[in-house]
Amino acid sequence: MNDVTTAVPTLAATLPEIPFQRFTLDNGLTLLVYEDANSPTVAVHLAYGVGAKDEPTGRFGFAHLMEHLMFSGSAALPGSYISHLEQAGAEGLNGVTSADVTQFFQSVPPGSLDYALFAESDRMGYLLGGLVPQALEVQRDVVTREMEENELQPLGAVQGLILRHLFPEKHPYAHKVAGERADLQQVSFADVKEWYQRYYRPNNAVITLAGAITPEEAREKVQRWFGDIAPGETRETVQRWLPELRHEKRLHLQDRIDNQLLRICWPIPPYGENDTTALELFAGVLADTALSPLVIRLMVDNQFATAISAFVESGMLASYFNLRIELHPGVRADDVEHHTMAVLEEMQTTPLNPDLLQHSQQLLLENSRSDWADPLTLAAALGRHEHLPKRAEGLRQRVVQALNMSAETVVAAAQRWLKQGRLVVQVDPFTAVTGNHHPAPARIAPPIIIAPLAPVPAAQRRVLSNGLNIVVIPAIQQGLLSASLIVEAGSQFDPPEYSGLAQLVAGLIASRENDGITLEQWLWSQDTGMVLDVGVSSIALRMQMPEPSAELVFHHLSDVLRRSPASAESIEAHRDHYLQVLNDLDSAAWALPAICFPPSHPLRRPAFTQGTAASLALITPKAADAFYRQHYQPHNATLLLCSSLPIERLSALLERSLAQWQPATSAAPTPPAIPPADTAGSLLLIDNPTAAVTTLMAWFVLPGIGSPHDAAVQLIHPLLVTSFASRINFSLREVDRLTYNVTPLSQSLPGSRLLGFEMTLAAENTLAAVKAIRRECDALLGNRPLTREEILGLIQIEQLRLSRPTGNDYEALCRQESLLREGLAENYRQQLMDSLTALNEVQIDPLLRQAIAPGCGKWLIEGPVTAVADKLADILALPAGYYPHNPEALYK
């Protein structure tokens, strides 16, 4: 008997229950309800039992296209569905199509729940009353552009190739969800109506509500809004279709990659079946850790691979087991495959490592706990599982099954499925650049209710005998104590020659060893999590612990803090770590500080807080020790606590445990003056002549948080890009149809906020995209200025965001920590709410002109840009510079 089986049931015993309730309306709509009284929102999730597997030949991509059309407006809510819901305070709002189901989801404040349910019911029952043929043309272009951009990315075509060759021609999974261009062009408006009337029916849908709602309330509301929608015809569905790959299949292709890629795939049973669950664990044992057999063989014993992953792609009808191996340059793919198959053979003929199996099970347990703690993630999981044979109960049953699974069961599944025929794909780098609808009665949307800000209990404050400031806020969760140690030791205090010193010293403290165990490891042994955040002005060490462990944890923390962590060995180890961090930084993290701040500015360093390789090389134990002694002093720190314990009891506990941390200096260091970012524009180009796509990033400089302009600044980002209806987002996606996604970017710094966006688009569209962005900015300053209606909508979105209460202690801790670190008043959120109410165009317009006028903005454009550099400079009214081959040159 494998010895892990005696320990694993303990894991299963710690798995949370999921006490949901199920109701079925007369029209066949299934309602699942999970009540979480601590949640500040209600998650709303709709799962329709239709996906790419239901598409007939010649209509591949239809399911995904229909998902997009569902956001095009309905009878009572014409126009953008997303815009309506964003003004109702919806967060996490989106839709997604898979081979099996189509999902729509959002979280809303309780006061907006009726509105969200009305909106979902309106597009389920009455979409055709507001849908017009022009919407089909727009969304056809959007999904086609999305497909093209994905396929132009390196390895973008590989997934579709795997599906076509792993599954037989007539199998529902033998094509990619995105579909085919030619098929999408053939879709007619009549096809859209037929698909909608067939699949978007209540008896083919599951609605899940999770969060701040009772089952009784949920049932009443769903019945009210969905109960009168007529069901569709009953459909026959395929439950299981497992392909049999009798022989090995091999594919060989080239793509725009630096090193060879090897993919090996086996068909396996559908999601949730015993063998598939076992193979998910087997994948974790095989390749998840540094001690996994395949990692040791290919990366330790032999320098064959730079990255390895093993995973299962799950489906309702069938699944497939994947190996993905990125090869070192010069390594032969057949040698790697030979060693890989040898490892698989050994694992199937020898006992499985019990520690690795338990690690794989522990990871599944932790991921499940984390996912189920979030109402929206849980709602999505319940809704998807309800469409499976085991229904929503199968969500927890599958995890219990995995946690109770023996090593013998896992190996037996691998023996059954990983010795049959397989698909091997080798990708080499390019060797050269190459029904009748009846109108319904008019429907009126219910009001969106903006809750007033919940009263915030005043924080209680004390000072310990060693000078440590204590701030306590009340807890929501009983039995837990959340803490954040804030030390005024951020990167702004780095001596000019030692940039990166603050980051390194903070890392030294967080990994400080006592008796051979690091602080993080010791805290973990006490069921205490730890997060280290190094900012510009301060660092924060966050912990969440069981209340009975608090005194022991703080006593241990005191031991760590009162002794300098600097030694030659620790400095060298951390220097190597941060050099690797530098290697992993993207171009924006290198470039943005250099184009925002002049030389010698405290924030002109990679990612605003990192050092360079040159500055890290200069850091000595003496320099680190001096920084520690100057900054890591109790009178230079604040301990923020979220606890239900009385303040006097807490003070006594902290005095006993932390008073040994004594100051080494008498005065706290004076923060340096930090001038705001330069508002002048700049254009930096990264030339990649072989790229098929361009990545375009832009940031606009606005006043920092805590200025009189905070309310106006809060509205500018959603006005430009953060919502679906934002000027730039909507134009690039829906009007010019140049990209399918514009991602917001933001960076808050002392004295400045950088608000911007990022998009990826086909390289030939680079100039058109920049022209469209410039056109939208010019229109805001000229012939299409900000309207009162836009302002009111943006204010409502922001007020709903502000009125959202915290859902747990960690969130409350982070919110209060932000106020302390930014130097803001405790009632800052109420001040901001009041300022928003009084906001008008006159207050916003000067900031817009400062940020988006011609010649403003920080632009970073990567792709085949040399040929269009002069035109880009002309459009943006900025001289073009080039990103250096070695980004360290930006800081010399």
From TrEMBL:
SUPFAM superfamilies referenced in this protein's UniProt entry, alphabetically: LuxS/MPP-like metallohydrolase (SSF63411)
GO BP: any one term: proteolysis
Iron-sulfur as UniProt keyword: no
Names of required cofactors: Zn(2+)
Domain Peptidase M16 C-terminal: start-end pairs: 187-362, 619-791
Molecular function via GO: metal ion binding; metalloendopeptidase activity
Matching InterPro entries: Metalloenz_LuxS/M16, Pept_M16_N, Pept_M16_Zn_BS, Peptidase_M16, Peptidase_M16_C
Domain Peptidase M16 N-terminal positions: 35-163
Keywords (A to Z) from UniProt: Hydrolase, Metal-binding, Metalloprotease, Protease, Zinc
Keyword Protease part of the UniProt annotation: yes
Family label: Belongs to the peptidase M16 family.
Protein name: Predicted Zn-dependent peptidase
